[in-house]
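Hi there. Long-time user, first ticket. I'm pasting a complex I've been working with (about 440 residues overall). I'd like to know whether the download I got is complete or cut off, because the file seemed smaller than I expected. Thanks.
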Amino acid sequence: MRRLAWRPAELVHAAAETETARTLRLRVPDWPGHLAGQHVDVRLTAEDGYTAQRSYSVAGPADGDLIELTVETVQDGEVSPYLTEEMRVGDQVEIRGPVGGWFVWRPESRAPVLLVGGGSGIVPLMAMIRTRRQAGSRVPFRLLYSVRDPGRRYYAEELRRPEPGLDVSYLYTRSAPEGLSRPARRIMLDDLAEGGWPASFEPDCYVCGPTGFVEAAADLLLALGHAPERIRTERFGPTGG
Amino acid sequence: MSIISRGFRGRRRDDGGRVPPGQYLADDFPVLSAGPTPRVPLDRWEFAIDTEAEQTHRWSWEEFMALPAETPTVDIHCVTKWSKLDTTWEGVSLDVLFEDVETAAEYALVYSYGGYTTNLPLEDLLDGKAWIVHRFDGEELEPRHGGPARLIVPHLYFWKSAKWVRGIRLLNEDWPGFWETAGYHNYGDPWREQRYEGD
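Hi, the file is complete. Here it is re-exported in full:
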């Protein structure tokens, strides 16, 4: 069995996603490709040899040697502040992956898809949306995206563009834009009943976000009659830094 | 030659050599699992050990709670990079559960409510190395952390410490579990950084 190799990766482009999140495009020579929903390990090495590593979900399909990550700054974090604030184009990290074969969506799949994301949990779900687009898949997707306020939305421009077969609903938890009938609150049964698919459609449900959010959303999906084996979850601890 | 990340200094902590390579200390208790949290009513809970000769040893919740308990304080290490030092649990040593179990099997497949499985050599469960626990930090174990009862095997990555544990099947041949078939290492020693297949 060949060991999953650490590969040097160079930052080729970076853009602010929100006030606290940044999208990084990295060139990883000989990248083997990945599936939507998989993650990579990122390793930083200081000049004296000290290293730190963390896992990050990939935000989109591979584009040759390029992969994209969106990283949220964890306050007092060790790795994320480097990636979101310090790192400049031309700087290098090491990447290992792709990892994870469970929380993935494959374009050949035919089941309708429900994506439920909380905060930075949108990242692997966005990889699924982009992979669907790239593959020309017509599988119907629904995205329920829970964020504190409109300024916290990742990929806001891209998700505003109409896309056949993709419905996007925002669930604001602290402050909603004026004119929305849904008040700002945490995810509830109605949100999933109205914005999701009926359980009888047997959709594949992907839930990703902070632990409390994932627990709540997965429990609500069960209450709506979705089979546990159709609910895949990925939980981000607040220390995921 | 390793790649230097320009401008990275990192935050070093003196952990007294207790944190394995590639791990960082977490102050909270992150949760990781692959699906919804199963909820198991205590009157329907049971724990079973099935031997390779198809002998089954079973405990109801009441029988399990009547067994002699221990309160191990151990360090735990998750493959997603966090470690927690000095976590205190309460539960039953696998040595107690295996007292009357006759077996020559070398492998154990642990299975859970909700369908999760994980494999490990049987010897990694014995001799004071593993427990079935029902309390964490003096409190009842929450469902999200594997309650009513989970396995803990602190010397291996925490995915081996199956939540919502339901039983152990003893096998003559190794049988990879859920994450072990999904690209993770078959054994999972944090000190040797056995994270993924081939490590």
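A couple of notes from our side: The first strand of chain B starts at residue 24 and ends at 25. Chain B has one domain: 42-192.
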